[in-house]
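thought: fold this chain, then report.
action: predict
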Amino acid sequence: MVKFVTFNTVAVLTLAGSAIAADIHGMNRSNQKLHARQSSGSIMASDYQNGATAPGARPGDAEGQTVVIDNGGGHDDNSQRDACPTIFIGSAAVGGSFSTGWTDMPQVLGFDTMRDLTVGNNIVQPYIIERGKDASKVTRVVITQPGLPRDYWKYANLVRNSLLCASVNSTLAINRDEILIAAPTWFSTNDASAGSAGSNDLVFRGGAWSTGVDSAGPNGASISSYEALDGLINKFFDKSTYPALQHIVIAGHSLGGSFTQHYAMLRKSNSAQDASISYFVGNPGSYVWPTSDRPVTNPGGSCASTANQWQYGLEDLPPYGSGQGGANSIASRYYGRNVMYALGLTDNEGGDSHCEAQYQGTSHLTRGQNFQRQLRQANNGNVPSSHQFNYVANVAHEDYLIFSDPTSQEFLFKEGGQAAGNSSPSASSRGGSGSSAGSTGSGSGSSSSSQSSGSSSGAEKVGKAIGVVTAVAAAGAALAALVS
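observation:
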């Protein structure tokens, strides 16, 4: 009897051992394939687990920049939008704060910090630029602007993640190796005190960088952020470095969107460049109005005399705007520029709280709708053909969901889109269909929640193997007891 049981137990052990070997072999092969895909720089979420090292990571990169795979859906600005099958690279952790000053410039994963742009007398305007792309093949540059906290690293990363998503959308048919992302670092005097700005770096008081007024230093230098951005644009249009470059997009959301709209209004004419520059204006808190008319006639407060002054209108321009003609000339030039206004249909936040902004409306959304009406009124009932409004459904004041909306992606990464410009404020020039297309246009893969199933298959195999090993151990113990 003992021999019979021993024979069957040994048989069970043999079969179990074969199962273990086969399962572990299959698991090893799967892990080897996964490692190979990650090592090759895969951007597909199915090749990673949450918290994995992101492709392109280097020693010294700031913390927080790992692969994020969760169900955030992009609403937290730190996860991939639903229906996009690519990874999301987390935002860099930075010391200090925007109110007291940032203590360092984070090493942004996949980007290099550059200090080769000088403005004025040996004054440096730092910027970051994507690493490893062949300058001779770059056809498009997207220059991102920060929000109120001057968090250039966040917005460069958001647009980078949107580019990853867009690059696997066969409808867009873009090559991300030909698209370069860059971001200027607008420092404040607090950043200089806290340690992130160098002694020769251009610095501004508070948020003065966002409206193009002159700098506060270094050493008393008076240089507009718009002049510095002109210099960065010139660097990219230099054919000796970027011979294939065709287009530049200036892009921002919230205060960065306001910066972009103001710059588009006041940028000096450059016949060699202007047709090759587009402006992406996402949910700005307020606008510079091209006429003296306002949609709200008596919002309260006591600023009627300043409601049309710069930064809200075209009176009392900063030094950068001198010599550019009167308000009508500046507005006419603006109407000919290529602009997208991307507005969340549920963005009911108040935005800019200054008295002058209240003449434009009560929220980000209403101010955008009122601005669209103003463009019509000033242009014989039609929005200028080179301007378009993309109203994004089910999105509030959410940076990433604005940047990664497929209609936005087409503007950012493909052509910049010439608009029909004739929709009502309650719909969109392309936004109603564009937002719907957003859920289908990026839907070349499964949703982010299902992406994690690919990563969990290895864990399931490990669990099965552990179960078999446990059974074998129990059988071995039983065999030992019987034999003894």
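thought: worth noting. The longest helix spans residues 2-39.
final: tokens above.
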